[in-house]
Amino acid sequence: MTPALRCRHAFESATVHANGEVVCSIIDGRGDFVLGNVHDQSLAEILAGPRRRELRHLMLSTPDAYCAAIGKRCPLKNIPVDPTEEVSTRLRFLSIEPTTACDLRCLSCPVRDFSGDITWGNAFRDGGASFALWDGVRRAKQHAADGVLQALPMLRGTTAGDRGRLGALLLRGRIPKTRTGTLPIGLLQQVVTDAGPGVERIDLFNYGEPFVYRHLVDALRHIRLVSPATAIAISTDGMQVRPQIEDVIVSERLLDWLIFSIDGCDEDSYCRYRIRGRFETAFANLARFHRRAAGTGIRVIWQYVVFRWNDRDDQLKRAIAMAEELGVPIWFDFAHTWGRSRRRPGDLRYLTPYVKPYTALPGEARQEGW
After folding, report:
1. What percentage of residues in the chain have a pLDDT greater than 70?
2. Counting beta carbons within 10 angstroms of the beta carbon of residue 238, is it exposed (0 to 12), middle (13 to 18) or buried (19 or more)?
3. What b/e string do you get for 4-42 counting C-beta neighbours within 10 Å, with b at 16 or more?
4. Which one of 112, 178, 258, 328 is most buried, counting C-beta atoms within 10 A?
5. What average pLDDT score do residues 340-346 get?
6. Which residues of 353-367 are buried (b: 16+ CB within 10 A; e: fewer)?
7. pLDDT at 358
8. Cβ-contact 262, 293 below 8 angstroms
């Protein structure tokens, strides 16, 4: 008999969106199951509250990877349940999204739904006919779901768990406009203080670009002051990493990890997804930061998200060679949305040493609940 599955995030993690809403993890990027809002309550009160207990109950109510709290399959729900296990509820990992503002409009990224300047008409210009069709069907379904919820008010107060799997899928509407925002620096600092020095890692990213947050240095300094032993990580598209901010981060050692997401080995393979980005700019910023941070303990990583247009062996091997020449580690992370690679894992075994931690080759299970 296949054992039931659980995740770690419902117990040991929290993600704070830029509008103040607290959810379990980056998987709930829409904010479908909100635990509370740090504008109204402290993080400690939210994590000790009834919504988090309900989250764990709903997550454990289904034996497979489907999570009834968010109404979809979750790749992080992959840990076999041990009936004798006492799962800790201590907060170990905290993600903070400083802002939803972004300098790019990457294909299939939820930021496209957040941004008022990205409309249906951009889909064909940005991604061609196949993306326009996929995006059109997706948006049409969301509008239809909103119409049903408006026509049937009794459904509005129901949760994904109440609606069942098919109902949760069909009634998932548009992301509300209230999902956007920017955290005031004082509130972000209070969240970090509430989390306490026992947090093992704080990620300053989710959706949006962290380097467009004008209080970024103040936020990093506060984390170092309050939680000196906590690892701090940022993931960036690399376009907004300026030498002035870079100098402060490196000289004061305000980061432990800086992950540059550069999804290609040249302009052609990169710009297919990273709309408005430039490969040369992002890669030059990666190289400069890596040289500047050498010997400081700050780990600079090149993350390459793999799609079907940048997954040829010559492209992947060229990226590995470029990373080795630069002396920077490279992680490959396989996309699971529109445009995902159709390569077979057996043909990609040579990438095993370079696959992003806790992820996997296409078609294979993620590891250890992360």
Report:
1. 99
2. buried
3. bbbbbbbbbbbbbbbbbbbbbbbbbbbbbbbbbebeebe
4. 258
5. 94
6. ebbbeebbbbeeeee
7. 85
8. no
Residue pair 241/210 in contact (Cβ under 8 Å)? The answer is no
| 148-186 pLDDT, tens digit each | 988 988 887 777 878 889 888 888 988 888 999 999 999
Do 260 and 300 form a contact (C-beta atoms < 8 A)? yes
In sequence order, the β-bridge partners of residue 302 are: 260, 330
Determine the pLDDT at residue 156: 77
Q: Which sign does the torsion angle of CA 351, 341, 96, 238 carry?
A: positive
What amino acid occupies position 14? A
- Per-residue pLDDT of 85-140, as tens digits, reads 888 899 999 999 999 999 998 998 888 887 777 877 889 999 999 999 999 999 89
Q: Which residues 6+ apart lie within 8 Å of 94 measured at CB?
A: 13, 14, 15, 16, 191, 192, 195, 199, 201, 202, 203
Residue 58 gets the label, from left (phi > 0), alpha (psi -120 to 50) or beta, of alpha
Q: Give the contacts of 162 (CB within 8 A, at least 6 positions apart).
A: none
What is the per-residue DSSP string for 210-236?
A: GGG-TTHHHHHHHHHHH-TTSEEEEEE
In this structure, what token pair is assigned to residue 222?
Answer: 């506060």
Beta bridge partners, 330, equal 302
User: Mean pLDDT, to the nearest integer, of 16-42?
Assistant: 96
